[in-house]
Here is the input.
Amino acid sequence: MTGARPASAPPPAGVPRVLVLRALGLGDLLAAVPALRALRRELPGHELLLAAPGRLAAVAAATGLVDRLLPTHAPGRAVPVRLPWTGPPPDLAVDLHGNGPASHLLLQRLGPRRLFAYRHRGTPEVDGPPWRADEHERDRWCRLLGWYGIPAHPGDLRIPPPATGSPAPGATVVHPGADAGARRWPAERFAAVARAAHRAGHRVVVTAGAGEGPLARRVAGRAGLPPGSVLGGEADVPFPLLCALVAGARCVVVGDTGLAHLASALGTPSVVLFGPVAPRLWGPPPDRRHVALWHPGPGDDPLRPGDAHADAPDPRLLRITVPEVLHAMDGLR
Here is the structure.
């Protein structure tokens, strides 16, 4: 998106437009990179617009795949009520948001010449492939495009590293936050991991999203980290700075959050802690640089055994121990 026009600017005369709906979060956008890359590759003469929250503009720019961001949002993972679309209908609309009438109808109201979406009985006019609940998020959207004749590979998930250098080269990045307690490993365990890394001679940076400052400072304090070890907290860390930090990190220790997807996208070694949702659905790629830790119990649902939006840490997450995480960190390549 370097040199991209503002979202309100008219499209270049005669240039067909592709509108992709993915009005979700950081990890959701990064999980869609393989699909976005396939669209960019197969439709080089089109302008590609991404309908997503405005706060993700820098993330969309970092992918190098999006011409313009159409600022769009809704509470939680809901479908936006409307899109601020202007001008002629899109040549192609692609529903990467979900599966159902709400997102289908939102895009259909724009009158696109073509619509790529999963089949749903609530919108029988959409002749797409069937939805599968057991599919990894990257695989899901690649399969959708493949059904319509656009080859996409879920392993094609990397984004370019930033041009700016890391504010803490070679640091171990610990991210204790998550947007729900169910996916938040206890602060004292993150602190124990950070303390062990610090005592081993590694620089440790604790990152925090907006409102997570007290949690990050508690982790850093219990770990005995020096002043200046917390990045963010009052507001989100600016994405270019966060991207540079993760790109230059020794490793990232994180729960099932957007930062885990950023580590995967940059090829930075990571240890990712899972609880209510299986790594089979949202985990890092099968690569020696990444370790996904998860401990389902007997009789657990193999995909979503817990409530990902609950307030209390999920029991499967609590089964992950500090020594286990440290061992995984030692084995990263």
